[in-house]
Design goal:
2 domains; single chain
Length: 164
């Protein structure tokens, strides 16, 4: 693991290697996967990190994210609100980008989600009242849909609080 993290920081990993690395990472214990996801997230939001490292993380994170625990995903999503509240713009923007890459926007903290939903609803309402609303509403509705947490629970997946 230490060697992989060192190489992520210093080497441009060939694109063909990411699926292989990802397959090996998801075989690790849950604790190790969670630690790896937390570590690469921390590297990604570090403004001093080299673009090569960020590119490697962007390519590798989607392979590992689905196997991370729900708690770890919510930990990462909550960092967006922490960075926003502390006016740490670079880290907030990097967190947004990371969550977009792994399709994890629904894991943001509730205050951030509520603010985004209010803003998107306002945009949708103004587009609805404008010209060509039939054509212009769709992208705003899709953006709104992507910000909403998925409703309902699958039988295999417990909710955020461990309930079914």
């Amino acid at each position: 693991m230490k060697q992989l993290l060192t190489n992520i920081r210093s080497e441009a990993i060939p694109p063909a290697d990411f699926p292989l690395i990802g397959r090996d990472l998801v075989k690790l214990s849950q604790e190790r996967v969670d630690d790896f996801v937390w570590t690469v997230f921390g590297m990604y939001v570090d403004p001093r990190q080299a673009p090569t490292a960020k590119g490697n993380i962007k390519a590798l994170a989607p392979y590992v994210w689905p196997t991370a625990s729900e708690d770890r995903k919510y930990d990462i999503g909550s960092r967006f609100g922490v960075f926003r509240n502390n006016a740490d713009i670079a880290r907030k923007d990097a967190t947004q980008e990371f969550l977009e890459v792994v399709d994890g926007l629904k894991y943001k903290d509730e205050d951030s989600l509520a603010g985004e939903l209010i803003e998107k609803l306002g945009l949708l309402k103004s587009v609805h009242s404008g010209l060509n609303n039939f054509y212009n509403e769709y992208p705003h509705a899709r953006g709104l849909e992507q910000s909403l947490p998925k409703m309902g629970l699958s039988r295999e997946q417990p909710d955020r609080y461990g309930l079914r």
